[in-house]
Each structure stands twice: as C-alpha cells, then as structure tokens.
Amino acid sequence: MSLNLTDITLTYPDGDSWLTALDRITLDVPRGSLIAVVGPSGSGKSSLLAVAATLIAPDAGTVTVDGTPTTGMTRRELTELRRHKIGIVFQQPNLLPSLTAAEQLQVMAQIDGRSPKKARGRATDLLDAVGLADHAHRRPHQLSGGQRQRVNIARALMNDPTVLLVDEPTSALDHERGAAVIEMIASLTRRQATATVLVTHDRTHLTAADSVAEVHDGRLSLPKPAAWTQRSGAADERGRADGTD
C-alpha cells in the first residue's frame, strides 16, 4: 500500500458543540490504483482529501504515506513529504498567467532544487503524456478549460509522487471533456504507479476507477469495484423509474 488512512476522526467546532467531519475512516490505496470517493455536498469528501494530503491533522487515527506514518511530524517535515511524495490536483488549476504550460511544470522541479535540464525533460515527458506536447509554449489564456486541467494534473506529477489526490477535476468541464480527463487520470495512475484518490460528485465516469467508496455524514463505506457500483446505480435508477423504489 502507498496510502493508508487508519481509523481517522476529524472534528470541527460548531458553536457550542463539535461537528464530526470524518468518523473513524479507514482507507487503503495501493500504488497503481484509482479509488473514487463520492458523496453529497457536506458529506466529508473534502475533509478526507485534506487529511490524506496532510494539510489537516486528524483528531485521531494515522495517515501513512509510502510506508511513513505522519503522526508527530513537524510542519517542515510535512511540507517535505508533500513535495516529494504527494501530488495534489486542486479543483481550479490556478495556473500562473505569465508562464507557459512547460514553465508551469518546470517551476515545481526548480523549487525542489532539480537542475533546469532535468526539469525541462520531465516537463516535456509529462506534457506528452497528457496530450499537450504541441501546447508546451502556450500560456493559460491560450488553452481551453480541459487543457488547463491537463496541465494542472501534469504539474501535480512533476516531482514523481507516490500518492496523487484529485479534487473534483470535472466540475468546470462539459461531459465529453470531463470523461477524457477522468480516463487520462486513470491511465496516468497506472503508468506512473501512483496511489490515486479522486473526489468527485460526478457519477457518470466511475467505471474508469478501480473501486468506488461513498462518504455519508463523515462515514466511509468500504470501496466496491467500479463496475459493480455503476450497475447498482443503474438498477436504482430503473427502480425509481418503474415505481419500485
């Protein structure tokens, strides 16, 4: 396993009481696999991703990244861990407007102290992997929404992480572009051998994942094969249409 969340509990203050965002969640993600996490708004999906990214420390439980437990790490140590082991694809690409697609990636490697030559080579390979080799010298305003999201994903892979965390990558895309992005994430997961967690509200592309887990009121169901989940969802829809639900 490359990402392990064990018995994670996370609470937030809510007036005079406390709100449980994550309730004793356990999730194991092997390298080379994509687990989709779905659930309604406010169910705890974003909190789960933030804890997995070590951006928020849980009240209880253990996050283990590539065999390294993060409990007790200092802020500096967690920053180093994220830099080398965790790639994060945020919902909005937030690309720097003055940089080309290639430079968006190269700056990540330069922050890590890699040589410019190696950074250029890695950026070229990743842009080719996401189908943007011919767009390396274009700036964000010259790219479509789907292309900007592809740069966003390539940037998250720049430092060769073992864990890839993806937050709602299709929220600003139409159905066709959204499907292409999800398929690309699944392909890169296997090619780059990352342990990938994809948080999404869009259930139409779940077959690209290896398994699907659902979050409700801070509790996570055991991951099920994506194909099974898709068939179950289709059966539910038919039941409602037939009045048998």
TrEMBL record:
InterPro entries: AAA+_ATPase, ABC_transporter-like_ATP-bd, ABC_transporter-like_CS, ABC_transpr_LolD-like, MacB-like_ATP-bd, P-loop_NTPase
Sequence ranges of Basic and acidic residues compositional bias: 234-245
Matches recorded under Gene3D superfamilies: P-loop containing nucleotide triphosphate hydrolases
Organism domain of life: Bacteria
Signal peptide range in chain numbering: none
GO molecular function, one term: ATP binding
Region spans: Disordered: 223-245
Keyword annotations of the record: ATP-binding, Nucleotide-binding, Transport
Domain ABC transporter per the UniProt entry, residue ranges: 3-242
SMART domains given in the database record: AAA
Family matches, as PANTHER family: ABC TRANSPORTER RELATED (PTHR24220:SF685), IMPORT ATP-BINDING PROTEIN (PTHR24220)
Name used for this protein in its record: ABC transporter ATP-binding protein
